[in-house]
């Protein structure tokens, strides 16, 4: 019987440059996401000198900044962080949907991992829970995903 090849990323062989692109809107939530992401990267051996943080007004502006970062900085991975909290108007759907769609498209276009840590929640309570309290820290989780994808893509050879 032939053996089955399985590939998966690890949290080794992840050195390189990482850029965190952050939407400032809802900064009281987003600041904790950034702290979690930076802590995760450093704990897994990424030098603080190889981590850049780019601030934009909000989630709507994330895709354009991510695209420019990918073109100019050519990082190993980008971590997009922000918080879109549902309100009483359809604004939430437009911002969250378009932000997520654009980030997904950029990841495929540039063949570079973009970890999506943009919270899309119904309430401030849910946002706080996901930024470091009882539901974990989605910034940390996004950084973990970025590290794992960098490691996985390196196994295919060529540039990640």
Keyword list:
two-stranded antiparallel sheet; 160 residues; alpha/beta; four-stranded parallel sheet; Rossmann fold; LS/RS_sf; 6,7-dimethyl-8-ribityllumazine synthase; riboflavin biosynthesis
What does this protein look like?
- This protein has 5 helices and 6 strands.
- It has a domain of 95 residues: 3-Layer(aba) Sandwich (Rossmann fold), CATH 3.40.50.
- The model has no long low-confidence stretch (mean pLDDT 92).
- The N and C termini lie far apart (33 Å).
- The longest helix has 20 residues.
- Strands 2-1-3-4 form a 4-stranded parallel sheet, sandwiched between helices. Strands 5-6 form a two-stranded antiparallel sheet.
- Strand 3, helix 3 and strand 4 form a beta-alpha-beta unit.
- The relative contact order is 0.23.
- 45% of the residues lie in helices and 21% in strands.
- With 160 residues, the protein is α/β, with parallel strands linked by helices.
Helical residue percent band: 40-55%
Instruction: Please state the average pLDDT score.
Output: 92
For this structure, the quaternary state is single chain
CATH homologous superfamily descriptor of the domain at 47-123 and 135-152: Lumazine/riboflavin synthase
* String of helices and strands: EHEHEHEHEEH
| Radius of gyration computed on alpha carbons | 16 Å
Count of strand segments: 6
Distance from first to last alpha carbon: 33 Å
- Beta percentage is 15-25%
Q: Assign the structural class, choosing from mainly alpha, mainly beta, alpha/beta, alpha+beta, or little secondary structure.
A: alpha/beta
Strand order across the largest sheet: 2-1-3-4
- The assigned CATH architecture of the domain at 47-123 and 135-152 is 3-Layer(aba) Sandwich
3D shape = globular
**CATH-assigned fold name of the domain at 47-123 and 135-152:** Rossmann fold
**Spans of at least 5 consecutive residues with low confidence:** none
**Class of the domain at 47-123 and 135-152 in CATH?**
Alpha Beta
Largest sheet: 4 strands, parallel
The number of helical segments is 5
Function: Catalyzes the formation of 6,7-dimethyl-8-ribityllumazine by condensation of 5-amino-6-(D-ribitylamino)uracil with 3,4-dihydroxy-2-butanone 4-phosphate. This is the penultimate step in the biosynthesis of riboflavin.
GO molecular function: 6,7-dimethyl-8-ribityllumazine synthase activity
Pathway: Cofactor biosynthesis; riboflavin biosynthesis; riboflavin from 2-hydroxy-3-oxobutyl phosphate and 5-amino-6-(D-ribitylamino)uracil: step 1/2
GO cellular component, one term: riboflavin synthase complex
């Amino acid at each position: 019987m032939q053996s089955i090849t399985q590939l998966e990323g690890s949290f080794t062989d992840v050195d390189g440059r990482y850029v965190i692109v952050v939407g400032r809107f809802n900064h009281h939530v987003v600041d904790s996401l950034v702290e979690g992401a930076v802590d995760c990267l450093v704990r897994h051996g990424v030098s603080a000198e190889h981590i850049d943080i780019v601030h934009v007004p909000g989630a709507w502006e994330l895709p354009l900044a991510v695209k420019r970062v990918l073109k100019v900085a050519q990082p190993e991975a980008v971590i997009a962080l922000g918080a879109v909290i549902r309100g009483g108007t359809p604004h939430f759907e437009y911002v969250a949907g378009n932000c997520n769609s654009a980030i997904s498209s950029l990841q495929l276009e540039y063949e570079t991992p973009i970890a999506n840590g943009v919270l899309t929640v119904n309430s401030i309570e849910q946002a706080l829970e996901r930024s470091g309290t009882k539901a974990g820290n989605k910034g940390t989780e996004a950084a973990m995903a970025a590290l794992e994808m960098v490691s996985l893509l390196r196994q295919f050879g060529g540039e990640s």
